[in-house]
Amino acid sequence: MNNLDLYKIMQLHPSSDGDMINYAYKKLCKKYHPDININTNDIMQKINYAYEVLSNEKSRASYDRTYSYFKNSTNIFEKEQLSKAAENLNDYFKALITNNYKKAYNLISNSDKSNITYEDFEDWQKTVSKFYRIKDYSISLLDNFYNKKISSKKYEHTAEFKINIVEKDLASKDEKKEVVTKFLVKEREGWKVYLGYKKLNEYTKDLKLFNNLVAGKSKNFQAYSNANFSKLLEKEIYRKERYNSSYSLVLFEITNYEDLKLEIDDSINNYLEVVFTELETLYRFIDEFARYKDDKFFLLLPETKEEEISPVIDKTRTFFVSQRPFPLKLDYVKVNNLNFSASKIINLALAEL
Fold first, then answer.
1. Phi first, then psi: what are they for 138, rounded to 5°?
2. Of 81, 102, 323, 341, whose CA is between 20 and 30 Å from 53?
3. How far apart are CA 289 and CA 245, in angstroms?
4. Which residues are CB-neighbours of 150 under 8 A, at least 6 positions away?
5. If you ran DSSP here, which 8-state letter would residue 173 be given?
6. Shortest CA distance to 236 belongs to which of 346, 338, 350, 344?
7. Cα(179)–Cα(338) distance, rounded to whole angstroms?
8. Is residue 138 within 8 Å of residue 164, measured between CB atoms?
9. Which helix (H) or strand (E) holds 132?
10. What number does CATH give the domain 81-214?
11. CATH class of 226-352
């Protein structure tokens, strides 16, 4: 308890008199007493200690002599620690979004690891990712505790965070907001995310069963191989020549691909795989796309004139740049000369970009 800001706990100014201290204590007891509000033992313990020190003239005078130094030095140390905790929580969510489950698993507490194997954790996350995708999130500190007991284990330092999550339901295509809280616990290796799960097998099993029931009900929107995409393009060329049917072709390039690769290594490929899967929601049923190498993709728009493709380009660029936590910047080229073979059209587009 030596490292606590007693005035902050009592919600008082350091110049408060004895009557104000008594009033604050009674008010806080009404709010945080365990008989009134469950799960407040830790807070009430701090309040009792703060009142014991500040309500006694001698102990308060002794505390005040070191308060100024303590406040400055402790705040700096505490802020550094909580900043590290927030950074690790942020890394945990980034790892989940990029499907880097090994990194995410390494960031959970040893207590969780004793209950959950990596194989179970990976299986659980892969199954959940078939239903939901995190689109965005924000992290804010709620509170921090010393010697807090979670389940049966006491941690020297614990930080509680609120996470505002925007996630997409991949079945309904709806986006919803959710607020969750997470504890980060200070272990020998540093700050770790505390999940509190005992067994994931049954939960994962139920999700897989539900997934099997709904599988196959949506269009299998895929990134075609270059050869297969060439065949699709040849069909549109044929329809244009024979029936004068319009089509358009756009080549996009992710211009910040190399920068992201340096930042998140091989996880960039997992991240892009999820992003491209969601393109189904952006286009018509008849539209098709094909990835070219790692940082480019073609978009084929049947029955679409050149003057009609600008809105499609705009919404594509908006979609990619809105991705979180790593926005994707796009450059593009509209393929204007379509009077060649599919392979030549593709090569001309690549040369223009």
1. -140, 150
2. 81
3. 19
4. 111, 158, 183, 185, 194, 196
5. -
6. 338
7. 50
8. yes
9. strand 132-150
10. 3.10.450.100
11. alpha beta
Pull the structure tokens for residue 315.
């919404």
Is the Cβ–Cβ distance between 5 and 76 less than 8 Å? no
* pTM (two decimals): 0.59
CATH 3.30.460.80 fits 6-79, yes or no: no
CATH 1.10.287.110 range(s) for the chain read 6-79
The set of residues, in sequence order, having a beta carbon less than 8 Å from that of 164 and lying 6+ positions away, is: 137, 138, 140, 177, 178, 179
Q: How far apart are CA 157 and CA 128, in angstroms?
A: 31
Q: Which two tokens stand for residue 346?
A: 């593709």
The number of residues making up the chain comes to 353
> Which residues of the chain are in CATH 3.10.450.100 domains?
81-214
Instruction: Give 143-159 as a DSSP string.
Output: EEEEEEEETTEEEEEEE
Question: Which of 23, 27, 21 is CA-nearest to residue 64?
Answer: 21
Helix (H) or strand (E) holding 260: helix 257-264
Per-residue pLDDT of the chain (353 residues; tens, 9 = 90+): 556 788 888 988 888 889 999 999 999 998 888 887 777 788 898 999 999 999 999 999 888 877 665 555 556 667 888 899 999 999 999 999 999 999 999 999 999 999 899 999 999 898 888 888 898 999 999 888 888 888 888 898 999 999 999 988 876 778 888 888 999 999 999 999 999 887 776 666 655 655 554 443 344 334 456 678 888 899 998 888 888 889 999 999 999 999 999 888 878 888 898 898 888 788 988 898 888 888 999 999 999 998 899 999 999 999 999 998 899 999 999 986 677 888 888 888 887 77
Return d(Cα 120, Cα 200) in angstroms, integer. 7
